[in-house]
Write a structure and sequence with these properties.
CATH class of the largest domain: Alpha Beta
Number of helices: 9
Strand content: 15-25%
Helix content: 25-40%
Structural class: alpha/beta
Oligomer: single chain
Radius of gyration: 19 Å
Shape: globular
Largest sheet: 11 strands, mixed
Order of helices and strands: EHEEHEHEHEHEHEEEHEEEEHEH
Number of strands: 15
Amino acid sequence: MPAELTTDLNRAAEFLKQGKLVAFATETVYGLGANALETHAVARVFAAKQRPFFDPLIVHLSAAEELNTVVENVPKIARQLIDRFWPGPLTLVLPKKEIVPDLVTAGLPGVAVRVPDHPQARELIRRSGVPVAAPSANPFGRISPTTAEHVLQHLANEIDLVLDGGPCRIGVESTVLQIVPEGPPILLRPGGLTREAIETEIGPIRLLEGSGNESASQTAPGQLPKHYAPQKKLIIAEDWSHIPAEMRIGVLTFTWNCLQVPEQFGHVETLSATGDLNEAASNFFAALRRLDDNQDLDVIYATPFPSRGLGLALNDRLARAAR
């Protein structure tokens, strides 16, 4: 049976209690949720997404006070970040408790955990009474969903229920930060919380080096070199002088100021007319999906973003989508 679409929080929470799969809105993207402490339910998430088992999941909580259910200890710097940025688009990798199945963490000693800044998501988790493991609610490696309709488009026959929480406010996944015993935290994945905001709070952080092996265990979701990808070929370009004349081209561009549009471009998606990176992020995946679904286009060309603020996360998504 196709997944049920609802706004009934009690029904969605009951589904999670029963080990079923529930897609739900967060401030970042829609997540595909399962009881994080029930291995069979978590395995269904991997099966529904066709996700490799070496790619860990993020555990979602309804409040920071629930951390001790899944985390062994909370270092001082982690507590500082939690007090400042939770609820919000920040995921922290912390030492896990034994109760967390190895399937959730890809066998690693740390668990990725966050509290979403979406009232419906937090209330769903609270009513379910369990921590919720939830990657993005889309087939593995494909464009992340930012509306309930996006989820139903690809996973309707693989999951049990979609809780409609409206369009996602931020539109790109959470920032993932690993807290380590020695030295500054490590930025594993740029996302909805900017590097600048984190460093303003705790000082310099380190960037991850040497990630992206196709088969090794990942330390955080979204680290594979090819991810967030449309079905159509995506090319990142600043020079438009060598585009084949015979191709039907769709364009994903940050703002009109960065592009002179050739006549052969059949569909142009401008993410922010005013050059606002927050607006661009909230529109990014939906615009990429419209270009990918347009049957009149052969290829997608995209302009890079400024390397500041949310531009770091957007350029990361573009690079992985273009692999």
